[in-house]
Amino acid sequence: MDGKTYTNIQGHRIEYKEDDIVLPVVFNDYYLYSLCDHIYYRMPTDFGADAALVIHDPVRFTQRVISTFLAAHPDWEALEGPVTYYDPYLDYTSFRVPEMAKPFGYSYQREVRIAFKPRRRPATKMEPVFLNIGPMDDYAELLWA
Asked: What residues does each domain of the chain span?
């Protein structure tokens, strides 16, 4: 390495730190709604939460979110399901959909995602999207700490 402390890969300066070489994985922006399939005691602390939405009918909830989003953005693609956890040091090939993948250090979160990616690059900057999926009283409840 001739005393070098970095290398350039595809226009990115990659520093050599603590025996790790971190390669950036770059892909297009997308919208993400993150959930978990089980309540775990670390979740409120990890996300600074004082409440939780407990969904008793996740299929119904997912259908409402996806149909509401796609009604307003029909040229987008919906993705949904459990996250694929991978070893960032050894296993870059265990997932094909980066929007649905995360390093295995977060596997305790048991994350489930609803994601939307554009079929073509948006012409304008992506802004937050707020969806009105209607009342959820008959299939979900809000718990406060």
From this structure: 24-144
Q: Which residues in 85-105 are b (16+ Cβ under 10 Å) and which e?
A: bbeeeeeeeeeeeebbbbeee
Do 112 and 81 form a contact (C-beta atoms < 8 A)?
yes
Using CA atoms, how far residue 23 sits from 27, 85, 96, in Å, is: 13, 18, 17
pTM for the structure as a whole: 0.80
Please give the single-letter amino acid code of residue 48: G
User: What local confidence, expressed as pLDDT, does residue 131 receive?
Assistant: 97
Listed residue (66, 73, 79) closest to 111, CA to CA: 79
Give the 3-state secondary structure of residue 41: coil
CA angle 32, 114, 75 (to 5 degrees): 80
What pLDDT was estimated at residue 20? Answer: 65
Cα separation, 12 vs 33, whole angstroms: 29
